[in-house]
Amino acid sequence: MVQAINNNEFHDTVWVNKLLCRFADYYFENLACYDCGEAPSKIWEYTHKLTCENKLSHIQALILGVNAHINYDLVLALHDVLKPEWDELSEETKKIRYLDHSQVNRVIANTIDQVQDEVLEPLDPKLKWVDALLGRLDEYLISRLVTNWREDVWRNTQELMQYKEEHHFENFRLQLETQALKKANTISIF
Questions:
Q1: How do the pLDDT tens digits run along the chain, 190 residues long?
Q2: Nearest-CA neighbor of 186 among 14, 97, 58, 67?
Q3: Which residues contact 89 (CB under 8 A, 6 or more apart)?
């Protein structure tokens, strides 16, 4: 992402960088809570618990983290960054925000193979064989999954921004967390 920002692959690199930093904050804040014995969000607590049990494959552990970070953290990070400006943005700028959000899908798609090669395969050499056997199919499937999740994130963020009262916001946040927990449970059984 940093390289894509530096290569000006986005319409508004300043905004994307701001979003990237806020998005990273959610991950590191939850990790710090977990490491210090404080309660992180429920989805991160569940994700850490499952990955610490060592009963999952490395790819399951990775996808669990991606699920929590995208389906929960990203909605909140997008909300944090968009909410202060949204009502004043022109329709064209709102479209640009969405296009930059969607451009991340291409960045992710272009790095999936590298993540497999540099992160997963050293941990589980059998994955190199699976990767070779499947060709580009595994990258395509993972890219589609992440793209679909990120489309849901955009819709969920748009809905979340409609809530003016704190209790409505909190109810929707709890729904997001429940949805991410359901996805995590499904990931953990495959």
A1: 999 999 999 999 999 999 999 999 999 999 998 888 888 899 999 999 998 887 888 889 989 999 999 999 999 999 999 999 999 999 999 999 999 999 999 999 999 888 888 888 888 878 778 878 878 788 888 889 999 999 999 999 999 999 989 999 999 999 999 999 999 999 998 7
A2: 67
A3: 97
Q: Which residue is associated with the tokens 């927990």?
A: 181
Alpha helices in 53-165 (DSSP H): 58-68, 75-86, 91-115, 121-123, 126-134, 137-160
Q: Which residue has the tokens 């049990």?
A: 53
Which amino acid is residue 36, in one-letter code?
A: C
The one-letter amino acid code at 15 reads W
Q: How many residues does the chain have?
A: 190
How much is the pTM? Answer: 0.92
- 164, two tokens: 């003016």
Q: Is the separation of the CB atoms in 40 and 30 below 8 Å?
A: yes
CA 43 to chain centre: 12
Residue found under tokens 């409505």: 168
**Residues 6 or more apart from 8 whose CB is under 8 A from it?**
none
- Taking the chain, what is the end-to-end CA distance rounded to the nearest angstrom? 29
